[in-house]
Write a structure and sequence with these properties.
Layout: E1 2-7, H1 10-21, E2 37-40, E3 45-50, H2 55-60, E4 66-70, H3 71-77, E5 82-86, E6 92-99, E7 110-114, H4 117-126, E8 131-135, H5 142-145, E9 151-156, H6 160-163, E10 167-176, E11 178-182, H7 184-189, H8 191-205
Parallel strand pairs: 1-3, 1-4, 7-8, 7-9
Antiparallel strand pairs: 2-3, 4-11, 5-11, 6-9, 6-10
This protein binds 1-O-pyrophosphono-5-O-phosphono-alpha-D-ribofuranose (PRP).
1-O-pyrophosphono-5-O-phosphono-alpha-D-ribofuranose binds next to strand 9 and helix 6.
Length: 206
């Protein structure tokens, strides 16, 4: 049996469709219900829906053998897992943004609002710039508008949220996409099956 952690939401649903197309379907997961764990004994898979930011925790601790997770979460959490594949889905970027035309000067401490304090800290450390982190949990874009922060470090996908709030990207930090990750011990002990999944995904991507 292989345990697969899927992120609840659109990305997880897309990922499940890929697994299904590889022969790892699980009819129960397609039913309209609110169950969270689904097993298909026939092909030896067990899926569960996890909060996207928790997927790497399940995988790192071995509760899941493999999982699908955004690179943003891997970078932020510094998860000790194997990153097997870039699935090329859920593409976006991590960027510094702020009010249009109000780029803060680099000689003062910059107030940075973000859901990703570790990514923000290491980005600014690499630039030797002093910052103060203001940790928020969502709707980050309003922070500079209300003068809670000078900039934000956040995900930009289409750029619509920034544009519609009179904000603009100042600097790109890193490209983000969904990754297939594996627990390190599982990768060793369930190598055949995990490798089979990996190879098959690689083939359909080519
Ligand atoms: C994310 C991100 C931005 C938005 C970017 O927010 O934090 O707010 O999407 O997308 P866009 O460039 O296509 O406009 P999410 O929907 O995850 O909500 P939250 O961070 O506010 O909780």
């Amino acid at each position: 049996m292989i345990n697969i952690a899927l992120p609840k939401g659109r990305l997880g649903e897309k990922a499940y469709k890929i697994f299904k197309s590889l022969g790892y379907g699980c009819p129960e997961i397609e039913e309209d219900n609110r169950k969270l764990i689904f097993t298909n004994e026939e092909n030896g898979v067990c899926y569960f829906w996890a909060k996207p930011s928790d997927v790497a925790v399940y995988v790192e601790r071995g509760a899941a053998d493999i999982g699908i997770v955004g690179k943003d979460i891997l970078l932020e959490q510094g998860s000790d897992v194997y990153e097997l594949l870039d699935l090329g889905m859920g593409k976006c970027r991590m960027a510094v943004a702020g009010i249009k035309g109000c780029r803060p000067s680099s000689d003062s401490t910059i107030r940075v609002a973000t859901k990703f304090p570790n990514i923000a800290r290491s980005y600014y450390a690499s630039q030797s710039r002093d910052i103060e982190i203001i940790k928020l949990n969502g709707s980050i874009e309003i922070a500079p508008l209300l003068n809670l922060s000078d900039v934000i470090v956040d995900i930009v996908e289409t750029g619509t949220t920034l544009r519609e709030n009179n904000l603009e990207p100042f600097e790109d930090i890193v490209d983000i996409s969904a990754r297939l990750i594996a627990n390190k011990a599982s990768y060793k002990f369930k190598y055949e099956k995990i490798n089979d999944i990996c190879e098959k995904i690689r083939n359909i991507k080519e």
